[in-house]
């Protein structure tokens, strides 16, 4: 347990567990040969995971280009839910292998939007790496090719993920359980 901002936070995945898993993910990713690989980090939530996974990819011999796209979902859980681009990538994707990185796969709407967008732009192949998979929340059939951990159905924070802009800096993934004494 940790106390941050006066809140108790239960640790779900420790820094050590995450670091070890990132190396495993990198090895899995490297096992499928890629040409002209472009890694796209989906902001904001994936920034820490992407930074660590990219260095793990270097450690296994990959040399991708790196891009960032900021996406935002609106109207979650309603009929009018959707995803919009807040800030787009600059790079050309036509004919390229793309690896999308996100923090957490929940309904799948964010990653479906990103994957479809890259295919519309002519990407050759789009694969998906996520740190956490909340399978119980899925809407539709989208799955990630590379999953760090199956995630229980809690709202999680840390390692890039926030609640109301807080807790992104934590080196672990945790769950806020209440006020500290
Ligand atoms: P989806 O579009 O429903 O798959 O939701 C994925 C996005 O929602 C992720 O990229 C996260 O930014 C956010 N998200 C979903 N669950 C959590 C959570 O437990 N903590 C923090 N962010 C979350
Ligand atoms: Mg996100």
Could you explain the architecture of this structure?
The model has no long low-confidence stretch (mean pLDDT 96). The protein has helices spanning 15-30, 47-59, 109-120; strands spanning 2-4, 7-13, 38-43, 65-74, 82-87, 97-105, 125-133, 146-150, 173-179. It has a single domain, classed as Rossmann fold (3-Layer(aba) Sandwich), CATH 3.40.50. It is of the alpha/beta class. Residues 42, 45, 102-103, 110 line the site of magnesium ion (MG).
Name a few traits of the molecule.
181 residues, alpha/beta, Rossmann fold, 6-stranded mixed β-sheet, 3-stranded antiparallel β-sheet, 3 helices, 9 strands, 34% strand, binds inosinic acid, binds magnesium ion
């Amino acid at each position: 347990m940790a106390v941050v901002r006066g809140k108790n936070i239960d640790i779900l995945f420790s820094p050590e567990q995450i670091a070890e898993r990132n190396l495993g993910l990198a090895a899995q990713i490297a096992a499928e040969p890629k040409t002209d690989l472009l890694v796209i980090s989906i902001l904001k939530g994936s920034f820490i995971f992407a930074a660590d996974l990219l260095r793990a990819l270097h450690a296994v011999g990959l040399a991708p280009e790196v891009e960032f796209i900021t996406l935002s979902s609106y109207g979650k859980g309603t009929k009018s839910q959707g995803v919009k681009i807040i800030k787009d990538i600059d790079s050309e994707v036509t004919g390229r292998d793309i690896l999308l990185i996100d923090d957490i796969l929940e309904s799948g709407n964010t990653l479906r939007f990103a994957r479809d967008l890259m295919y519309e732009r002519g990407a050759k192949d789009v694969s998906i790496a996520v740190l956490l998979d909340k399978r119980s929340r899925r809407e539709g059939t989208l799955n990630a090719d590379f999953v760090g951990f199956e995630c229980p159905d809690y709202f999680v924070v840390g390692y890039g993920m926030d609640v109301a802009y807080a807790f992104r800096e934590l080196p672990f993934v945790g769950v806020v359980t209440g006020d500290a004494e």
